[in-house]
Inverse folding.
């Protein structure tokens, strides 16, 4: 199952999920199999099932911080932000230097629109694992995101090197016909 999971192709992911399901049948509390099955299900787009399996992995092994960080990420992707934050923070209490848990917490902050906190967590994640290209890409996206304010204006968030930590004033009105 691990080889198929690593390939990432839909049929391989399905085969991995099935292989881990068989392992779970033989050993229902096998946290590693539950975790890997949850990862495969997430990559197959089955978030609800992924949440179930990752939750089972955490219940089977309460200090399994990797499973907890993955669960936080999937919860955040499902807009279950309160649960995701608590789950990410628990993973960080078990392992403060776990970059994926920092990234999951950043996703929670990003989804809530708290870009400074998202950037802070991503900076910490990158300091812990500078080679993680997905975190580096996420950090670039957070840095460049357009934030729609309550006043209906769009502000470009720039890195501190460009704006010296001051709010930018370059904004434009959205067309009045815009549904948001």
């Amino acid at each position: 199952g691990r080889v198929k999971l690593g390939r990432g192709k839909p049929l391989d992911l399905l085969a991995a999920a099935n292989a881990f399901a068989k392992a779970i049948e033989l050993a229902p509390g096998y946290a590693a199999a539950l975790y890997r099955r949850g990862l495969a299900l997430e990559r197959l787009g089955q978030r609800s099932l992924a949440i179930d399996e990752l939750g089972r992995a955490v219940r089977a092994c309460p200090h399994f911080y990797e499973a907890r960080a993955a669960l936080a990420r999937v919860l955040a992707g499902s807009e279950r932000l309160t649960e995701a934050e608590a789950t990410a923070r628990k993973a960080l209490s078990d392992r403060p230097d776990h970059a994926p848990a920092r990234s999951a917490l950043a996703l929670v902050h990003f989804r809530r629109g708290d870009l400074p906190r998202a950037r802070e967590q991503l900076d910490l994640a990158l300091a812990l694992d500078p080679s993680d290209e997905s975190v580096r890409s996420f950090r670039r996206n957070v840095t460049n995101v357009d934030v729609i304010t309550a006043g209906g204006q769009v502000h470009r968030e720039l890195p501190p090197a460009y704006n010296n930590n001051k709010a930018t004033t370059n904004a434009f009105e959205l067309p009045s016909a815009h549904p948001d």
Q: What stands out?
A: The first strand starts at residue 146 and ends at 148. The radius of gyration is 19 Å. Strands lie at 146-148, 153-156, 171-173. The first helix runs from residue 2 to 7.
